[in-house]
Amino acid sequence: MSPVSHASRHRFTGRTALVTGAGSGLGRAVALALAAEGANVVVAGRTHGPLAETVALIEAAGGTALAQPADVSRADDTKALVRTAVERFGTLDVAVNNAGVFRGGTPVADLPAEDWRTLLDINVTGVLNSLQAEVAQMRTQESGGAIVNVSSNLGPHASRPGVTAYGASKAAVSALTRGAALDHVAEGIRINAVSPGASDTTMSLRPDETPAERDVRMKEQSPLGRVSTTEEVAAAVLYLASSDAASVVGADLVIDGGAAA
Question: Does the annotation count 204 as an active-site position?
Answer without folding.
Answer: no
